[in-house]
């Protein structure tokens, strides 16, 4: 289906996964004493909480009915969805809450954005697409994360590298948390790019990673925003950095991710020393344009 039509089958699987996470007592339902065959809420209980008929909810979860906006809101409240999960639900239902997208990623990074990256000499920064492709980066990001120039273009995806680049994997103090978050970001964007050939190819190639498959099937979703990570860099040492995601208003499917240290911290000193070394090795002539 197109992003405008949504994906009712996936919506049903998503709803089933979310109700399986809820305990009846957690949502105010009385204990019946009847043993439960499966974890979480029954369909009838979700329908009761959402104030709709069990038959209606069943048809929605089975992908046989496209729910109205008020019903989706009721179901979201019943399942206690987070803001990110709420947005994902509406995307799957073909009722996006944001202006319609054209379904195609802008893969060309503007000269203004490239200039911004190059001017961030003390902070690693990259431009990621909705589907986590690395579209552009500054020199400090190449020195801190990995040398993206040496990565084949087809492999230049942050999720792929996080699972397949030993150096990038070792950089993370808590690799599993970071990797799970990236998988959740990737799934969050699938409703906007259901026919994206690059995304399908990536998912196919990631099939050999059992951790990825497990987390992908868990259908956790999240939006890139801000956070904090501890890294162990081979030359700079241990650094604690905050990261922020900036989205361009002219290219909403491009996201600038910037890592920064707390001012006055040891991490700031160490990152500065790494930046000084990068600047000393910088070529006199401009770098060739990144693909």
Explained architecture:
With 291 residues, the chain is of the alpha+beta class. The chain folds into two domains: 8-92, lambda repressor-like DNA-binding domains (434 Repressor (Amino-terminal Domain), Orthogonal Bundle); 111-280, Beta-Lactamase. Helices cover 42% and strands 12% of the residues. The protein has 13 helices and five strands. It has helices at 8-19, 43-50, 54-61, 69-78, 83-92, 111-119, 139-144, 158-164, 166-171, 175-188, 197-205, 210-218, 266-280; strands at 125-129, 134-137, 226-233, 237-247, 254-260. A five-stranded antiparallel sheet has the order 2-1-5-4-3. A hairpin with a 6-residue loop joins strand 4 and strand 5 (254-260). The longest helix is centred in the C-terminal third of the chain and has 15 residues, at 266-280. The radius of gyration is 22 Å and the shape is elongated. Mean pLDDT is 88; it is low at 98-104.
Count the DSSP helices: 13
Secondary-structure-based class equals alpha+beta
What string, H for helix and E for strand, traces the elements in order? HHHHHHEEHHHHHHEEEH
The CATH class of the largest domain, by name, is Alpha Beta
Name given to the CATH architecture of the largest domain: 2-Layer Sandwich
Strand order of the largest sheet: 2-1-5-4-3
Shape: elongated
Give the secondary structure arrangement, pairings included.
Blueprint: H1 8-19, H2 43-50, H3 54-61, H4 69-78, H5 83-92, H6 111-119, E1 125-129, E2 134-137, H7 139-144, H8 158-164, H9 166-171, H10 175-188, H11 197-205, H12 210-218, E3 226-233, E4 237-247, E5 254-260, H13 266-280
Antiparallel strand pairs: 1-2, 1-5, 3-4, 4-5
Helix pairs in contact: 2-3, 2-4, 4-5, 8-10
